[in-house]
Amino acid sequence: MASSSTTTKSLLSSTFSASKSSSSTATKASLLSFLRSTSATPISQKLSHSHNSRHHYYSVCPIKNVLTTATESETSLSKYPDVDLVSSDSKPTILVSEKLGSAGIELLKGFGDVDCSYNLSPEQLCEKISRCDALIVRSGTKVTREVFEAAKGRLKVVGRAGVGIDNVDLQAATEFGCLVVNAPTANTIAAAEHGIALLAAMARNVSQADASMKSGKWERNKYVGVSMVGKTVAVMGFGKVGSEVARRAKGLGMNVIAHDPYAPADRARAIGVELVSFEQAIATADFISLHMPLIPTTSKIFNDQTFSKMKKGVRIVNVARGGVIDEDALVRALDSGIVAQAALDVFIEEPPQTDSKLIQHHNVTVTPHLGASTKEAQEGVAIEIAEAVVGALKGELSATAVNAPMVPPEVLSELAPYVVLAEKLGRLAVQLVAGGSGIKSIKVTYRSARDPDDLDTRLLRAMITKGIIEPISSSFVNLVNADFTAKQKGLRISEERMVVDANPEFPVDSIQVQISNVDSKFASAVSENGDVSIEGKVKFGVPHLTCLGSFGVDVSLEGNLILCRQVDQPGMIGKVGNILGEQNVNVSFMSVGRTVRRNKAIMAIGVDEEPNKDALNKIGQVPAIEEFVFLKL
Ligand SMILES: NC(=O)C1=CN([C@@H]2O[C@H](COP(=O)(O)OP(=O)(O)OC[C@H]3O[C@@H](n4cnc5c(N)ncnc54)[C@H](O)[C@@H]3O)[C@@H](O)[C@H]2O)C=CC1
Ligand SMILES: O=C(O)C(=O)COP(=O)(O)O
């Protein structure tokens, strides 16, 4: 490895002191803007910047599905849609499309402009959404791909004021870089209580007897019920609601079994519940209470086949999601007597058709999705979701993110400077790749004194991805969509964590980014193994480039960078410095690295301003300079 030296100490120290404070602000701002969906980055700004730049652009080659470089003339601005964007200092607009508790609304009003518009048609929602930064829904709003498309990049967060997110197209949200958060805890008890209410009401024919009496009848013999005590209830889905139902059912003297492929056995044991297989649960239960999410593996999991395996006369409660039951099969099972009764709060289609055979069935008790509808739960959910949405709009990582990694705040603050380093290295590496090269394979190596398992690299990987993709495509990358976008663009990003002898106080010692099988526009950036290779470190909170190809350098990654390879001889720094000085371009940092004395050297010059073409040409004409490149950080 080459040694690196910095030209003047005073330059170094003044840069550090000047950059230290600005860098910590920049670090924070950069981190926040990344964590906020960058889909909301003013695209117009991004475009005008790109349009004015004299440097290479890149676009996605749709056939090879590989990132390829292209020149400005090949880059058409017409592919970018007109986007109605708020400026970053205006208040965010938050659309609340279903009734939300007043405490939550007040909290939201303290942060943004709140538009409570209920009962919007899909078309009305699509029309409104392009003017909204956040959308808050309950189970009644379908947040489809069309909604994300109509948002035109402005929607940063969808808040689901409740648990189930099956009404939100998560794949589309992720693709559009839109964070989805939910409020998973505040309605647990309400849902569990409703489950128990339905269980008891069904067992004792409460709703049927009520309707009968109101129609003037007195039918005591017709509505003889069944007792719950001593009966077996199978709780299907032993999560938050399921566990609370189990606890309450035990209090009623029932024998409780549960099925949940992912539930820990010790939690079940603590409540006195036996975890059993699906088959065992449905074959032995007198009552079955459903508490699993609606996901592909649970969709219509209760169907003709599974009903046929149930104990004859079983009673079913569903406070989870209508879609876990094949409703036509349930009608058949009710008609045949396999299922004696059902009590349903949720339906495949909500509201269901009024003439639905299931709803009208005399052995079925129904409620219109009331599980979460208690005053207490609704206030709790409203506050929980308002806090999550405001936090997301502020750029904080959410503890209830559904489609993004949850990074604990302490990890986040420790990683903050490395997050900036990671993005800059990605930006730098991609600019070193020659136009026309297809970028496919990127290797990231993290060196750290800590155990590899202690380093959560998702955030860093996402930042490197952002740094690589954003300068060369029209995609906007954030924590939500980084992996998806990389995959979509055919980028293979592999990671390696290496333990090195460094200060364990810091989570990372260095990050190296290598791009394989590409040509470089700066041959010195190519390492011995043929990859474009750069490495960086954080020094005093400031990201630095420390290695380029086989050359050691030391330059703070701020502003712009000129890299030159020259014959190692005296006077080179002065020559280039003079050319820049003539153009009033301020040098912020300079570092020279070489492999062998008086042989080849790399000069890395940080500049505050962008030198004009003339200055760059003059640098290129300095006889000892063999190659140079100007890079924007
Ligand atoms: N009716 C209503 O108003 C309400 C309905 N819900 C619904 O209740 C359900 C449960 O909510 P929470 O307990 O808060 O969620 P949770 O995530 O805490 O629990 C769900 C459990 O289902 C389990 N599970 C996943 N696949 C399964 C499978 N194939 N078989 C059995 N279990 C499986 C999971 O491991 C998890 O433990 C959700 O569908 C939610 O949408 C929740 C609140 C109110
Ligand atoms: O939280 C859930 O999953 C629910 O089903 C509650 O739905 P809601 O918010 O009452 O429309």
Automatic annotation (TrEMBL):
SMART domains: AdoHcyase_NAD. It catalyses: (2R)-3-phosphoglycerate + NAD(+) = 3-phosphooxypyruvate + NADH + H(+). One of its GO terms (molecular function) is phosphoglycerate dehydrogenase activity. PROSITE patterns: ACT, D_2_HYDROXYACID_DH_1, D_2_HYDROXYACID_DH_2, D_2_HYDROXYACID_DH_3. Residues 561-633 form the ACT domain. It holds the Pfam family ACT. Pathway: Amino-acid biosynthesis; L-serine biosynthesis; L-serine from 3-phospho-D-glycerate: step 1/3. It comes from the Eukaryota. Its main location: plastid. InterPro entries: ACT-like_dom_sf, ACT_dom, Ado_hCys_hydrolase_NAD-bd, ASB_dom_sf, D-isomer_2_OHA_DH_cat_dom, D-isomer_DH_CS, D-isomer_DH_CS1, D-isomer_DH_NAD-bd. One of its GO terms (cellular component) is chloroplast stroma. Keywords: Amino-acid biosynthesis, Chloroplast, NAD, Oxidoreductase, Plastid, Serine biosynthesis, Transit peptide. Its EC number is 1.1.1.95. One of its GO terms (biological process) is L-serine biosynthetic process. It is found in: Plastid, Chloroplast. Belongs to the D-isomer specific 2-hydroxyacid dehydrogenase family. This is D-3-phosphoglycerate dehydrogenase. It comes from Acer saccharum.
